[in-house]
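Could someone model D-malate with this protein?
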Amino acid sequence: MKINDNYKNLETSYLFSTVKRKVKEFCDKNPDKKVIRLGIGDVTRPLCKSVIAAMHNAVDEMGTYKGFHGYGPEQGYDFLKEKIQSYYLKNNVKLELNEIFISDGAKSDVGNILDLFSIENKVLIPDPVYPAYVDTNIMNGRKITYIKADKENDFLPIPNDSYKADIAYICSPNNPTGAVYTKEQLKIWVDWALKNNAIIIYDAAYECFIERDSELPKSIFEIEGAKKCALEICSLSKMAGFTGTRCGYTVVPNDLNFDDMNLNKMWLRRQTTKFNGVAYIIQRGAEAVFSEEGQKEIRENINYYKNNARIMAQTLTKHNIYFTGGVNSPYIWLKCPNNMGSWEFFDYLLNEIGIVGTPGAGFGKFGEGYLRLTAFGTYEDTKEAMERLDKLLS
Ligand code: MLT
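Reply:
Sure, complex below.
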């Protein structure tokens, strides 16, 4: 028996598992210190009322002969897909129901979608970026080229004719930098993909943080031509606090044809074979997120997190620390003071003031020298963390 030895090329553990282990070691040694976790982007606000009510109803239904649901459609129930269809229509994006696939979250789809592509494909990944793109491709043994995202290009690299790849990843609003592509910039990506017969895997997990009245695109399908070269992965985790509830969706347009094969049909074939769908109760909860009341409630939570970001921004500004993000994104991406390295600053913050961030270097080599803070903590913790930081830096 031979193992998949591509695993030998991975870091020993996934970024957030390493952070978790380090924090646990610190807490075991310092049981009296209150640690404030602003590392992994995990939400703290409870599920909103409409979601809870919808899930309660669904539970009751499941206890009756009439309302019981066994296996559902692997690609999700129409009642939820219709709501997502209307959500996209608000941005003038028209989707067919069969282009929407409900999943248990963006991370699963980020990994699973690679089933559709040959391992010979060359992959283009911005750096720094969400580490799951890199790790899932390494597991498959694909060759990765990294594109530098830095201060000079506002953390928004743009392709040119010298970029040769078959698969390109875009995360906008970006995790970790919070940078958001404009429509004009995305159009350059779409034109590049069409010209090079490449596919764009577009991660829109943070679209709900884009200011609603801004012109910034919330979906790549707002760009002409994108349905022929892009698929989009979305999540209810950050939008509606589903990190533990698990529900997301992926849009695979009917127009995605490569090598005489249709990607929508391939994905349907893949999902029906390897996935049995998201629980009925969870999909009813997800449906409620898109109701008028649900949207109002989740907006309150999003604004709460954005207020946390403002509090962090104020402290960093006061101490002249360079940072980006926090406006159309729940993340603040900051330059470590005194030229400290990412892990060095991570350790310094943890040991000195009990604050956990995520080291920028964990998002790629060009993230070295940066640290990411999340705005998903509670207001009280965020305020206390910034008071501690203010004191440390004063
Ligand atoms: C993050 O902190 O980057 C995210 O929470 C990780 C994830 O969404 O899997």
